[in-house]
Predict the structure.
Amino acid sequence: MSKSIGLQATTTKNLDRIRSVVRNCSTETIVGYSMVEQLSIDPWSDLSSPAKQIRLLLGIMLEEKELPTSTEFSRQDWDKIIEPLEELSHAYLQLYVPTTDQVADKPKEWDKTHQVAMTTFLSYHQNGMMASVEQISDQIRLYLCPLDKQLSRDLGISASNALTIAHYIGQEIQTQMDLVVQYVGDKPSTPELHMELAHALERLGKVRLSDVTKRFGDEGESFWNLFAVCRGEGPLIN
């Protein structure tokens, strides 16, 4: 069996293992658990490349609509998808590691070049985006904002205003996170504090369309239509 066929079989098997778990769970709890894992600074994390693997998990979740009978995504569910996420992350490596026969007729310089190129590729693949928010914003201002009039005409929103809305959403989420940190600080534990913390956690990571449109009008709705996706509308991952 060729490497490409073996890779396809491994990929299909592990994608189906993840689908069998997430299709039964609610969107809210999958996203919430993923957000907590993404924000966790844990040297002993279950995932070798959280930035990539969590995005893959959410992409798989978006393939199918949420079931009316969906349940909460639990630690047990998380444990079930760790292995297939890891196998998916590493399965493609077999395509980039040459066999002994493939290397035999290659010059030593080819082998040295391959080792450097492969290491560089792996470093890129396994890490999340390294650019800061401001660096990305600067690129958008440089390359897209000059096209504001055309983008506004074609998409219903300019690059400049899309950037403003993106920053607003980011700040809203940061404020929510700061509130959670405030509640889990040095305050004495009370029933009232537990209730406030529960409410803060429930709101964590959520931004409502009504809030965006109230602040930004029709362009807020255009932004939402361009950059948000409902569960069941995502492409099938193969």
Summary: The longest helix spans residues 159-183. Residues 3-94 form one domain. Residues 7 and 149 are 46 Å apart (CA to CA). The chain has three domains: 3-94, 98-126, 133-227.
